Amino acid sequence: MGKLAKWLGLQNRSEHAPTGVTPPSRLASGPITARETATVPSAYRAIQILTTSASQLSLDAFRNSEKIIDRPPAIVRRPSLDIPRSEWLEQATMSLAATGNLYLAPNRDSEGQAIDLPILNPHHVAVTQNSETGAISYHYQGRKYTRGQILHCALMRLPGQLTGVGPIQAARNSLTFARDLNKHISGWFDTTGQPAGILSSDQSLSDNQARAYRNTWNGLDADGNKIDRTDNPSGIKVLGRGLEYKPILLNPKDALWLEAQTWTALEIARLFGVPSSLMLVAPEGSSRTYSNVNQEWLAFTRFTLMGYLRPIEEALTELAPRGVTIRFNLEALLRADTMSRYQSYQLATQAGWLNSDEIRTIEGLPNDN
């Protein structure tokens, strides 16, 4: 990851394996893809939080700082003609989170106004630049688009780069470890060769005797075939010749790599900028109160979610009629509960900068008049 990893503060970290537990092999695994990231529970949860937060927001249009109520632009009411606004916002946010890029191919009416904003699959878009003219082109499903035909939003685009860098691309090593850890845990007793127990004897046994006792214990005959259990349906074992069976009992905390899973979940939470309280995981020794959780959510809205919402706002504003600005309504996210909202409304009305009609509009209620 080079300089980008250094700038973002992303470093590799080694975990010490618990006694008797073999760490997952990194030799056979390749770099994680965006699709595979969704199979990592913590990463799926982080992306879901981002997309759900964006999809529940409403869009407002402003002209000269005045909110347009009567007839807002069509792309504010419904950015896509094929899917609801909430799903469009979900897909737009997911495109940015998964790849760091969002590509829109606007369809316009006879007057040149954007009326439909299809979202292109970011994995199928190739961006090129003419070395002589500097013109940027977009290639999608065998068709070439000019810069004027595609609206491109990007996260963390380095100077001189054509595309952005999303969380998955920025910390592919950490996510690859999380994927491999999940696979390792799920296949622990089947693929690691860890025996379920040890069959021992206080007497000397030949190789053939040891093999025969092992097969009998595993329900196999001398030829290695399954023994008919009709007469012994419960699988009762009979020990003789000083034989003793000792199961190998692993601490569930070690067998499931719970500490490593917790660390991985926290690492992914930091990567996506999602509060650990929303990820349902907490650092060891931390305590939560209503106040600090509320501050976490506020910081999430300002410093994480807005990183995804602002490019979408700017793209919609660019496509809106001249003089119109599009903004997300963040009121519901910035105030966590009903009591907080009502208290803020009371302060606003007492200060004289909000009236009852404006408050009812914010709450999605009809005005008194």
TrEMBL record:
InterPro entries: Phage/GTA_portal, Portal_HK97. It holds the Pfam family Phage_portal. Gene3D superfamilies: 1.20.1270.210, 3.30.1120.70, 3.40.140.120. It comes from the Bacteria. This is HK97 family phage portal protein. It comes from Propionimicrobium lymphophilum ACS-093-V-SCH5.
